[in-house]
Write a structure and sequence with these properties.
Number of helices: 4
Distance between the termini: 22 Å
Strand order of the largest sheet: 1-7-2-3-4-5-6
Radius of gyration: 15 Å
Strand content: 25-35%
Number of strands: 7
Number of domains: 1
């Protein structure tokens, strides 16, 4: 198992620089897609807490109502092949249009082939809204913030 290092940052500027460094590991076109999806999710959930993980397999930004991954609403997950929108409790979400992929007991996802444009589709928006509503902890009322939770020293190539 790859060694993970917990990261504690004491300022938003330090966190922003770390996150930009993580995104900068990707090919420019993929980095642009990640930034666009992140911006769209932040606009959609401005009070969510962004939990950032630069892990072995994926770069992940979780959007959570509390600083625990178990309170995650959804997550942007990227590797060199693409970006997906993952729902931690996706198996319990209504999905009348059958957009959610995956067959595990809990997680479901949507491939964001068209990047942030995919988030504007009514079926995707409905699943995001359902995920927000299913959370045990409501989204905070104050502006959200970003926390770098962990990063793996060893990672699969991002390019």
């Amino acid at each position: 198992m790859a060694a993970k290092k917990k990261v504690v940052a004491d300022s938003p500027e330090v966190v922003a620089k770390q996150v930009e460094g993580f995104i900068g590991k990707f090919e420019p076109a993929m980095a642009k897609r990640i930034r666009e999806v992140r911006a769209a999710l932040r606009r959609r959930m401005p009070t969510a807490i962004e939990l950032v993980y630069d892990n072995y397999n994926f770069f992940v930004i979780g959007y959570s109502s509390a600083p625990r991954s178990s309170d995650s609403i959804c997550s942007l997950a990227a590797d060199k092949n693409g970006v997906g929108l993952h729902f931690y409790y996706g198996a319990d979400l209504p999905d009348p249009e059958g957009i959610l992929q995956g067959s595990g007991s809990q997680n479901r996802f949507v491939r964001l082939v068209d990047g942030a444009k995919t988030l504007k589709k009514p079926a995707v928006e409905a699943v995001i809204q359902a995920a927000i509503e299913q959370g045990e902890v409501p989204l905070p009322k104050e502006k959200g913030y970003t926390v770098v939770r962990s990063m793996s020293e060893k990672q699969r190539p991002r390019r």
